């Protein structure tokens, strides 16, 4: 076995106790916000049939699948949770009471080129609402994101939501550049999602490529790239067909977010389209305002996904909020808890003769729900006290020959240094 084989695969993480405590703290915050918003938690296998994730629009995520064949079946590690959630909804579509609010904390796998905050596995807090067609769902979801950011103490101005609407773009393009090829819209979105990476020129090249999935004329590609430059909703609406439903929805969403008290944290940005082909309506991404990191969170409306899986049409909206990017942001600002261990008690029998009494003391404390380290082996007292200190134990229970003779245990409070005795349990 080579040295490399003994390391975790590149882009994956081992979680040592300190790191796992930090992760659990973050997950605890995710769960707390989910609970505050009335979401129920669900889970699904990390392994799915590959076909659940393969779609034709040329999305990056499909090329990043960890997949393999076993006994004639093609399987893949999930790169995201949404298709699994859709699969679960489809299986019980007749009996689920809508609208439903589900959250999950899946580990997702994508064979990515690694940059800061971008890994080959990450955990993703997902919140999805199924069965609600109006933007009241998006408002509730975006508000939950802000409450999470507040819960982990991110300064209010450090993060913003940029939002737009694929429906608005689609309505605009159906009347213009996609007049004779409306079915190419999803592929067009996948291309324009690359704007940040390859710039307007690069997007125009891909939109006009004869071998590409969109195949626009140069002037039409220019129109699309210019549209993406809108940062003012009114400007974008001016180019949409009159009476545009999508435009009306977007302004309703901005009003609702104002009512939630988040109006100053949301901006319209036509360049947000998202790289996943299934989005159909409002789309949003959460970014650090300094733009040092990749998106912290992304989501939107995907009313057609269930139908593509052979199910009924059920409107849905949701988001995925990764653990890695927010951890970078929190660590930059010194907001990540230090992951220090904490224990209620350390119980130390000086020798084998005192072990039965120590077991009884530890048992009584554990039965009361305390976390107790019953010292194993026969280390020296100095070492036990130093370790108890490092573990942030509240107190140490000492049982030596004299204590045992007196039927007592000596309790030292590590914060104050005070000592007292208690009678040993029977
Ligand atoms: P996504 O934009 O691909 O959307 O991922 C959502 C979030 O997951 C990103 O904003 C980022 O925080 C995190 N993330 C994604 N890939 C990586 C990576 N390679 N390394 C670290 N973090 C990553 C989705 O996955 C959609 N399924 C979200 C959704 C749920 N839409 C509706 N419901």
- Give the CATH architecture of the largest domain: 2-Layer Sandwich
**SS-based structural class?**
alpha+beta
Question: pLDDT average, as an integer?
Answer: 95
Beta-strand residue fraction:
15-25%
Rough shape?
elongated
* CATH superfamily heading of the largest domain: Bira Bifunctional Protein, Domain 2
**Distance between the terminal alpha carbons, to the nearest Å?**
53 Å
Q: Give the proportion of residues in helices.
A: 25-40%
Question: Total number of β-strand segments?
Answer: 17
| CA radius of gyration | 28 Å
Helix tally equals: 15
What fold name goes in the CATH topology slot of the largest domain? BirA Bifunctional Protein, domain 2
Count the domains. Answer: 2
Biggest sheet character: 9 strands, mixed
CATH class of the largest domain: Alpha Beta
> Low-confidence parts, pLDDT < 50 over ≥5 residues?
none
Query: Which hetero ligands occur in this complex?
Result: histidyl-adenosine monophosphate
What does this 3D model show about the protein?
The chain has 15 helices and 17 strands. It has 426 residues and is α+β, with helices and mostly antiparallel strands. It folds into 2 domains: 14-332, BirA Bifunctional Protein, domain 2, CATH 3.30.930; 343-423, Rossmann fold (3-Layer(aba) Sandwich). The strands form 3 sheets. Strands 1, 5, 6, 7, 8, 9, 10, 11 and 12 form a 9-stranded mixed beta sheet that branches. A 5-stranded mixed beta sheet has the order 14-13-15-16-17, sandwiched between helices. A 3-stranded antiparallel beta sheet has the order 2-4-3, with no helix packed on it. Helix 7 runs antiparallel to helix 8 (218-228). The mean pLDDT is 95.
């Amino acid at each position: 076995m080579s040295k490399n084989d003994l390391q975790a695969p590149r882009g994956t993480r081992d979680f040592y106790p300190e790191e796992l405590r930090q992760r659990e703290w973050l997950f605890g915050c995710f769960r707390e916000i989910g609970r505050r918003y009335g979401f129920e938690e669900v889970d699904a296998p990390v392994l799915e049939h590959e076909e659940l994730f393969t779609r034709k629009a040329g999305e990056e995520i499909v090329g990043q699948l960890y997949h393999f064949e076993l006994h004639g079946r093609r399987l893949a590690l999930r790169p995201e949770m949404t298709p699994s959630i859709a699969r679960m909804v489809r299986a019980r579509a007749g009996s689920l009471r809508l609208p439903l609010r589900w959250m999950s904390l899946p580990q997702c796998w994508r064979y990515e080129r690694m940059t800061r905050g971008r890994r080959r596995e990450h955990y993703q807090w997902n919140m999805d609402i199924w069965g609600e067609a109006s933007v009241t769902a998006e408002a509730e979801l975006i508000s939950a994101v802000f409450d999470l950011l507040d819960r982990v103490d991110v300064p209010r101005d450090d993060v913003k939501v940029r939002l737009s609407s694929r429906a608005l773009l689609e309505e605009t393009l159906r009347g213009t550049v996609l007049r004779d090829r409306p079915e190419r819209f999803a592929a067009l979105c996948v291309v324009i999602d690359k704007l940040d990476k390859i710039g307007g020129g690069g997007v125009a090249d891909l939109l006009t490529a004869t071998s590409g999935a969109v195949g626009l004329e140069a002037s039409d590609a220019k129109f699309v790239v210019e549209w993406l430059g809108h940062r003012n909703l009114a400007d974008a609406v001016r180019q949409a067909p009159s009476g545009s439903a999508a435009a009306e929805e977007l302004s309703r969403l901005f009003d609702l977010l104002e009512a939630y008290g988040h109006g100053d944290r949301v901006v319209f940005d036509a360049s947000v389209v998202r790289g996943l082909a299934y989005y159909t309506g409002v789309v949003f991404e959460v970014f650090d305002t300094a733009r040092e990191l990749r998106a912290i969170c992304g989501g939107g409306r995907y009313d057609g996904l269930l139908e593509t899986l052979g199910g009924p049409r059920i409107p849905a909206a949701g988001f995925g909020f990764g653990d890695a990017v927010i951890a970078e942001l929190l660590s930059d600002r010194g907001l990540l808890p230090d992951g220090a261990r904490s224990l209620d008690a350390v119980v130390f029998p000086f020798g084998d003769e005192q072990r039965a009494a120590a077991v009884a003391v530890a048992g009584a404390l554990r039965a009361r729900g305390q976390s107790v380290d019953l010292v194993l082996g026969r280390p020296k007292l100095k070492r036990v006290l130093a370790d108890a200190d490092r573990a942030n134990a509240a107190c140490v229970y000492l049982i030596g020959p004299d204590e045992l003779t007196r039927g007592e245990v000596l309790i030292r409070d590590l914060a104050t240094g005070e000592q007292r005795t208690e009678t040993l349990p029977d």
